[in-house]
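idk why but the lab printer keeps eating my pages so im just putting this in chat instead. protein + glutamic acid:
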Amino acid sequence: MGETYNAYKEFKKIVQSSGEKMGISEDEYKVFLYPEREFMVSIPIKMDNGKTEVFKGYRVQHSGIRGPYKGGIRFHPDVDIDEVRALAGWMTMKCAVVDIPYGGAKGGIQCDPAKLSKQELERLTRKYTMMIEPIIGEDIDIPAPDVNTNAQIMGWIYDTYSTIKGKSIPGVVTGKPLVIGGCASRVAATGRGVVITIENLLKEMKKDITETTAAIQGFGNVGSITAQLLYEKGCKVIAVSDVSGGLYNPDGLDIRELLDYIGPERKLLSGFDKEGVSHISNEDILTLNVDVLVPAALENQINADIAEKTGAKYIVEGANGPTTNEADKILKERGIIVVPDILANAGGVVVSYFEWVQNRECDRWEDDVCNNKLKAIVDAAFNEVWLTAEEKDVTLREAAYMVAMKRLIETQKIRGLFP
Ligand code: GLU
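predcted complex ->
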């Protein structure tokens, strides 16, 4: 039996091993092993049945060295302090690798949103916002959506914060609905970034997207949009999955039909029935013989066991932390290329940055301006990481951390360590 998975330990290990590979002393990267500030709250709300329930909430600010803290808020039963610490650290690295002027943070509430009414969800979101209000702000720390949170929830955060402050402050949160200063490109941005990354990788591999097969674990915001965009580009998406299980068709799934089927109420894929489409397990989706596997659900999905078994040639991480360090070693030995989360799924935070800039300038950019700028940033980061991996003979994950840590350490040196 291996050690029990701990996301924060995984984060520290990769920072440490990348620091060693860079040939720098621990003294230079030590500050990035620890979050700068951790905020924990107990959030009491009245449930619809009149009873009081108390939820645990977190906001962890990992590093503010390159700019305001930035990162999403997750609503999930498994949220705990170590998960939020890791997610916050990954945000610091993500913003640094794509070179946008933010630090990293993450928040979360330990809850199962599927079991809450819309009214309970709103009360929970607003109370949490009120409780973390002292440490967020448009120049301080800017939340955004993550697993199980969406534009409506960001709208409640915006309204609660603005009500406390007595004026509208749209730049306090990104991923908002369009009518209150959201950016139209934001909803699809993470999936779009994943697809741009896949195209960059295929270009290096001299492989045409129309001759490529893909499997996608997770059919939420990131997974479903990745599937849709790949499908529209002529890639054969042979398998997708959600919490209820997976669907498989070796000739390719009709992704538009699946999107119509799940609809706005987001029906579970297990209820889908069509000739030629079989139902497969979560393990099946991760181990299929496929060109590109996109884990777009949660962390700790590709462990050592899956890494031994997977038939994927390339893994492009739509989720944060889906591959363990142990699995990474096995994948490297097996010659399976992994494009790491901090690079592959950075599209979301990049367009969050565009939304924030527009809010602060009271401006609105056209969608194609956002999408073109997104592509330019993701392409540049991919090239830099790819070249670093070649030059230093390291994996793409190690290279991405090297690029990010170099920027962080340079900034740290110039700013100095107060006092
Ligand atoms: N939650 C997303 C991520 O993990 C987006 C964060 C943001 O837009 O600030 O990258």
